[in-house]
Model the fold of this input.
Amino acid sequence: MHLRIRQWFEAHGAGAAFFLALFTACLPSLASADFWWHLRSGQLLYATHTIPRNDPFSFTVEGQRWIAHEWLSELLLYAIYRFGGYAALLVLFGLITAAAYWLAFRCAKGALYIRLPVLALAVWAARPTFLVRPQVFTLCLFSLFCFVLEVHRRTSAWRPLLALPLLTVLWVNLHGGYIIGPTVILLFLAGYVLDTMTDASARQNVLTRATHLGTAALACLLTVPLNPNGLRLYTYPFETLRSPVMQSLLMEWQPPNPLQRPFFPFFLLVGLTVLTLALRRDTLRPGEILFVTFFAVAALHSMRHMALFSVACIPLLSGWRLGPLPWRIPLPFRCATIVLLVLLCGWCWHTSIAGAAMFERTRFPADAVTFFEHNRPAGQIFNAYPFGGYLIWRLYPEYRVYVDGRADLYGDSFLTHFNEMYDGQVDPQPEFLRRDIRIVLVEPSAPIANLLRITRGWRKFYQDGLAVIYVRADALPPA
Done:
């Protein structure tokens, strides 16, 4: 028995401990403001068995055409929440994220003692973006596309490419980031062409490979209409990219700040990538350089793409040709390390799952909404942008929101006007009268809260450390 245990431990123990540690490092946060309206959308889908075509959640654009491009993610998210609550969501999305990095690790060549630190730094760099949200599916499918295309590059076999159009059908129903799939194919295709400039052997089958990838990209694009919104999904991903207001107002679309501590690992990863490109420029393929540079630029432009870059750079950074270690780690030490790693992972799991029960009250206006539910003032609500999704989860359908995280639904002019009112740059009273807004629920430090504090006819109804509620005098409930 002891011999069998030892044999299993030597064969599989390190691998199991590795994935356990990777999964633990990839456990996400529930802190996304969009999480709540995704959850409510999934509940609505589950209850009605219908994908919404028009906005049901706001009173400002109620009934307007809504492209629910993440409907499958939302349905899955709500089903998992209904089955196992917040803990089940953390486990599922942690596994999906870990799978993305595991696939990138499998693509990497080089010594294990180089690949492991590179993987650890890549995960650490992208940690600020690990959230329970549909974007995680884009990260995993991006990594899967890279894995399939890398298999094709090494073997020239066309059969693995058959999976890509099928994955696109899944992707286009999970998240609007599906356009990254064909982009990755075209980057590999351009890489093949560039490789012919430095490698004579690459010219022999470049035409065949180009035909394979061009056909795969076309097939992926042809499957895009296989979603409830049909041809509309062809243009949808580019609308946000063309919107200057969303690019400037939404935090995730802004570039990472090198002066903020959470982004230090990311810029360390970028610096290591630049150093590798400089020192290994004679041994790297031009296609590798193009691929990593493309996603590095995307990540530096928008923190939303940091995770994509961290996955893309793992094979390149792992490719240093160094000799094996001159010594072998003794088995007892390896066993002790694995046991300690398992215990550490268990403690991290417990901390993450236990913290999930408290995060709602510490990151969102849970107490304010509970007070609101008990008193129920009359009228429409003007809310802070980050609060919109949570209010949809807690108050719909009794109340509808002024704005929430579906920025594409509201449009640039609406968001600009909202931001001007929120910042106190314009008088909000005409908008309040026009829309019968009698309740304002924002952060205590919001400029509009300071304005209402000195505005006649408005009373502070509730305040805590996260939120303040102002109510117009004629909307106050009877004492």
About this structure: Residues 71-107 form the longest helix (37 residues). The radius of gyration is 25 Å. The chain is about 60% helix and 5% strand. The chain has a mean pLDDT of 86.
